[in-house]
Amino acid sequence: MGFAGRDLISINDFTNEEIEAVLELADEMNSALEKGERIEICQGKDMATLFYEPSTRTRGSFERAMHKLGGTVVSFPEAQTTSSVAKGETIADTVRVLESYADIIVIRHPWEGAAKVAADYAKVPIINAGDGGHEHPTQTLCDLYTLKKGKGKIRGLAVCLWGDLKYGRTIHSLIYALARFGTEVFCAPVQGLGLPEAVLRKLHSEYDYVPKKVKGDDLRSMMGEVDALYISPFKPYNLPLWPDLDVVPFIDREALRNADALYVTRVQTERRGEDDQRAQESHPTVNAKLLKEFKKKTLVMHPMPRVNELAYELDNYPRSVYFQQAAYGVPIRMALTALLLGASQIEVPRKDSFLPRKTAYSRYKEAISVKCPNPNCVSRHESRYIVPKFEMLNEEPLTLRCVYCEHEIHPPYIASSEWHHGLMLEDKKYHSADSHWLRKIKPENLIIFDSEEEARAKGFRPSKYVTAPR
Ligand code: CP
Which is it for strands 230-232 and 212-214: parallel, antiparallel or unpaired? Predict the structure, then answer.
């Protein structure tokens, strides 16, 4: 499949070979930029940058990239106040208007799933420049390019992800890519800010990644007070172990000390819940003393902006590449923009390399009552036109995944729409989700409830297969 006309919402929208193709084209763009050559292959094309959240690097480099490609930019740097969103306009309407003014739209939004909604409604390509704490795929392209330039490869490296792994959207996109490229990943989260359950599950079920922990004592002696570390080897493991992390084997301190790159992130204070308020203070700052523990010529990376988690004394450390990482945003976003606009074509080779497992989950459609529980999901905010949609990941226990923000839910009660349509109200019955009824009801007819009160309010009565939720 070519790139022209496509969206980039998740890093998983591209195969490994497609990612490599973008990196190769970016390398050509980078060389041309260094030589001062003109690459105006997007003349006559327009980009809209629609940013509902602050940005220095992403918006700046997208706009610079488009200018370097000879195109023009319609910029909305504070879309929440300067666009008609301030008057209540929806994402769907905004992008359907902007597609008349632009050939490609770059969107950053605080709500998870917002870029997917934009892509669902716009006819022009949509690029996700960060949707809440969900994903930031173009940052991952910059990160992978930085790794490749610094270490000559991606596959086989060992990378330590450090900081806020819960709300850090750059982390989520990056760990999927690293898993797919066969990179060992060590995770050193701030206490309480480990990888979200939905990300861990996806790593396991779709990319055969199972985490390991580092012994807390090893970690503390090396770095101070840190909650936990995970390592994710690139091969199928004993799947029934999941998700009980306590039975997953430990790695030792030596493994961490051999990391090829330390990817530091700040705590995303703008997204933290109340439970996370005390987390940051307990995490060590990455500084020269800490780096001495690393045995290899470890690259120090950071998507930036930084706050207190990365000492300024490292700015002159020869392996600190975070400013270079930001600078690579221009050639990377030039390559991506040119490809999605069809201004560059690349033959993407088909290899026998690892591809993400495409699991064909059933689609749950009967949105009679269940909302996505994530308060930051776009479906909770744009409910005038978005119908909640879920994929059914698992039957026992019943596990649904929101198609917008990918949060998981475990609804306790179910019913069938098929057997109630056209029947008397008193025939409507609901059952426990862990009863045999789940296997009898087709996914497209499944109705789910968060509580018995909700089921009763919708006119359903309990069947004899109702038990208290576990
Ligand atoms: N890395 C990154 O997304 O930076 P900005 O928030 O400045 O765009």
Answer: antiparallel
Task: Confirm whether 420 is a catalytic residue.
Answer: no
Helix (H, G, I), strand (E, B) or coil at 265: coil
Q: Using CA positions, which residue lies closest to atom 1 of ligand 1?
A: 303
Catalytic residue (one of 59, 136, 201, 407): 136
Give the helix/strand (H/E) hosting 323.
helix 322-327
Residues 422-436, mean pLDDT to the nearest whole number: 78
Task: Tell which one of 49, 50, 55, 135 to mutate to probe ligand 1, the residue whose CB is within 8 A of the most ligand atoms.
Answer: 55
Q: Please give the distance, rounded to the nearest whole angstrom, from the Cα atom of residue 459 to the centre of ligand 1.
A: 48
Sign of the CA dihedral 30, 31, 35, 39?
negative
Q: How far apart are CA 255 and CA 134, in angstroms?
A: 29
Active-site annotation holds for 337:
no
CA–CA dist 18, 313 (Å, integer): 37
> Distance, CA 455 to ligand 1 centroid (Å)?
44
Of residues 203, 204, 180, 235, the one with CA closest to residue 18: 180
**What's the confidence (pLDDT) of residue 175?**
95
pLDDT digits (tens, 9 = 90+) for 3-25: 999 999 999 999 999 999 999 99
Which residues face 131 on adjacent strands?
109, 135
* pTM of the entire predicted model: 0.89
